[in-house]
Design goal:
single chain; alpha/beta; Rossmann fold; 2 domains; 11 helices; about 40% helix; binds magnesium ion
Length: about 280
């Protein structure tokens, strides 16, 4: 499949782009293997003066962990270019719950360290240490006692945020990686309460955060990803250009059936780069 000839309206939209937000798995790599087109695409964006940020719904690794992971794959990225849902949750707490200082959180040591570094006090598993809010993440270190303590504070009516909606985290190992959405389902079964806010794609917080930091308008950013119901839906909610690549989950048939359709469907990042360059040149 070749990329379609873009309409004049789409060309104008492409010409106006100043920033590209990229999904990771299925968009720039598959598992541990970088796509051949990724490094040329990133070099092309640098040449065009278009900024790039990488987004992930996974809060279990810190931005420093991702910088190291990217370097191993052969991609140089700065901490500022890597956005996870821990940061989206911190931004959401600051904006919507400015009085929250103390949180009880279910998360990995990496995630908890990011909350501490952002100035939040983490309360212990202790009924006398009353938190201002509960945060539930993709906790690969989950213990029964801490799950019970989270349920207690949720039942007490504390503000309750989840880092991401994913039920499972994809893996090629013979196991099911129980993700944040499933931990929240367990807590809802126990307490009758679902999270007040669920960050992570398709929630637009990560994109609106980029727009604020870079002083950009929604028309100046594209969100590129391989999933219609997360990546493309997030673009729609943020008013960004939604670009679907067919190197991951969604097929050309999925794209044809999608309602509303993505703004642009391309086989891979290579064709998107070529379209951007052509729009700039034209
Ligand atoms: Mg993906």
């Amino acid at each position: 499949m070749n990329a379609p000839d873009p309409s004049p309206a789409l060309l104008a939209r492409l010409r106006g782009l100043a920033h590209v937000a990229l999904d990771m798995d299925g968009t720039i790599y598959k598992g541990g293997t970088l796509f051949a087109c990724t490094r040329p695409f990133l070099a092309q964006m640098r040449g065009l003066g278009i900024g790039c940020t990488f987004l992930t719904n996974n809060p279990s690794k810190s931005t420093d962990d991702y910088v190291a992971h990217f370097r191993k794959l052969g991609v140089e990225a700065t901490r500022e270019q890597l956005l996870n849902t821990t940061q989206a949750t911190i931004a959401c707490l600051r904006r919507r719950f400015p009085a929250v200082r103390r949180i009880f959180a279910l998360g990995t040591p990496s995630m908890l360290a990011e909350f501490s570094a952002a100035g939040f006090a983490l309360t212990a598993d202790d009924p006398d240490e009353v938190p201002d809010a509960v945060v539930v993440g993709f906790d690969l270190t989950l213990t029964y006692a801490r799950a019970c303590r989270a349920a207690w504070w949720i039942q007490q009516g504390k503000p309750y945020l989840a880092t991401n909606p994913d039920r499972v985290c994809p893996t090629d190992q013979p196991t099911v990686l129980v993700d944040c959405g499933s931990i929240c389902a367990m807590l809802e079964k126990a307490t009758g309460r679902a999270p007040d806010i669920v960050l992570g794609k398709p929630d637009p917080e990560m994109l609106t955060g980029i727009l604020e930091r870079q002083h950009l308008q929604p028309a100046q950013i594209a969100m590129v990803g391989d999933r219609i119901y997360t990546d493309i839906e997030m673009a729609r909610r943020a008013g960004a250009l939604g670009v679907l690549v067919l190197t991951g989950e969604a097929t050309a048939q999925d794209a044809a059936l999608a309602q509303p359709p993505p703004d642009l469907v391309v086989p891979s990042l290579a064709e998107f780069g070529a379209l951007l360059a052509a729009a700039r040149a034209g």
